[in-house]
Amino acid sequence: MFPYCGASLSFDACTFSNLHSFATTMEPHTLASFVRRHPQLQELHISPSDIRSITLSEFSGISLSSLNSVCLPQSLLFMISPDAPLRSVLSPEIEDDNEEIPHFIRHLSRYSTTLTELHLCRPHWNAEVLMHVATLLPKIKSFTFTRMTPGLHDPANVAFLEACETALPFFSSLSQFRIEVARNRELSGFTFVSDYRCDFMMVQMWGNKCPTLSICAFPSGTAWHRIEDNVWMPDLHHKAAIRWFFEAASTDQFPIDVMGSLQLFCDSMGKVDTLGLLNFRSPSAMESIGLYRQTEDDESEVYSSDSDENDVEIEIEE
């Protein structure tokens, strides 16, 4: 767990010889000297409230050779030594940086032998970044792109998903692929049966194009995991997913070789789960990095006309 420092702590005279992980949202006027005094850092998350307030000259000369996980503004990536065993990068940007994307990905490609996880947060979709990541970082195992501007039904979503489908065959090791729209707490649980119908077709196409893919999340809020070959199941901890699941199982949308296990699951209302369907829980990437914490209240849903049937409940044993 990261030691977290807020704005009330002065960095001026602090030195911790055994500090390996550090996260802060403090303004950077004393941050540079603090980082300089801790070259042993392995995890560094810097998220100032105003990225534009960073004076790059203050960080000049810093080269951290032990970093394996970072959350840094793009402008501070130069602090990572070329020899660092970098595994995970979270890059939040408050402004579009389309012109900088190729340079940014090329910079990360120097860590292509160690980098396994990349999460980009941008105000809008950027189709160009997909091919840059796929061709320059083809061995990456987890890739998330979060659009920070709300709009679940934005027309740009379709074009971006088509660009994703084009880029997928270029990945050789991709296991998790998340394309998400940041949503506030009140909207975090809004998925509909129609979303699952549409995304089920899409995830099967994506699974064919990228055989290594095992977890996939879409802008609609649906999340899927591959149980075998190209057979995909949703996160059943959402009511709309349960409704869709029973609908799909009753209309033979799954292969015959798994229908026996699915029938036992349905008949027992989830108590007999030989496929481990209830073990899969996929919080959004924004929840997992702590942007908001999902609560039971977030699970409340507003259903469209295609999902006004009686609630179907599955008992989930702890």
From TrEMBL:
Compositionally biased tracts (Acidic residues): 296-318
InterPro entries: LRR_dom_sf
Chain intervals for the UniProt region annotation (Disordered): 293-318
Record protein name field: Uncharacterized protein
Organism: Suillus discolor
